[in-house]
Each structure stands twice: as C-alpha cells, then as structure tokens.
Amino acid sequence: MGKKEIYLEKVVFVTKCMLAAYILTAGLLLLLAFMLYRFGLSEKIVSLCIIGIYIVVTFAIGLIAGKRAGRRKFLWGLAMGVAYYVVLVFVSLIVNRGLQDVSGNMATVFFLCAGSGMLGGMIS
User: Alpha-carbon distance 54 to 100, whole Å?
Assistant: First the structure.
C-alpha cells in the first residue's frame, strides 16, 4: 500500500469516527431533551449534562481511535477530541451567527474534549 492509500484510509477512519460521535451526541441530546420535558430539569442540571455528554462521547471516540491506532494511542485520542471540538465550534458559530454567545465556556469545553479523548486513547 502506498502513502496515498494509507492517508486516505486514515481520513476515512476519522470521518467515520466523527460521524459516529455526532450521531451518539444527537441521541444523547434527544434523551436529555426528553428528560427535560418529562422531569422539568433546571438549567444548571441541563448544562452539566451537556458537558457530560461531550466528555462521554469524546472519551468513546478516543477509545475507538486508540484501539485502532496501536501506537501513539494518546495522540490519536487527543486528535479525535480536538477534531470533535473544532466541529462543535464551527457548528456553534453557524447557528449563533457570531462569537457573542459562543465564547463563554469554550476554553473549558476544549480542555474537557481534548482531555477525555486523550484519556480514552490511553486506556485503549
């Protein structure tokens, strides 16, 4: 296999992982919305649950990426966590049409996503 095929295989793998991560995120957010509707959760609890969803999903994709990588697992987990964060910020910028509502907790969310992805990669 040439370098081009190996590179293409890695790009396809990362794309599949990101797609799976956002499908899992959507499912968990739908579950959270149902719980909000059913139990009338407070805003603070919903915010904590959203951050928890980010952590669980990036840990899972870091775990998957680390298992597949074999070597330098923590770097693959870190890369998946950062990629998840980048897509998250990009979508937030599109939805909010600017930086005014996005910048509040984004540094914290970056470190949580990157750290949990890296931890998932290390554990794999």
Answer: 21
Distance CA 121, CA 69 (A): 9
pTM of the predicted structure, to 2 decimals: 0.89
User: 10-32, pLDDT tens digit by residue?
Assistant: 899 999 999 999 999 999 999 99
CA distances 74 to 9, 66, 101, Å, are 19, 7, 31
> Quick check: 73 and 101 in contact, CB under 8 A?
no
CA dist list (Å): 96 to 35, 65, 100, 122:
25, 31, 8, 35
d(Cα 79, Cα 113) in Å, to the nearest integer?
A: 10
Write down the pLDDT at residue 105: 78
Q: What is the DSSP secondary structure assignment for residue 111, as one 8-state letter?
A: H
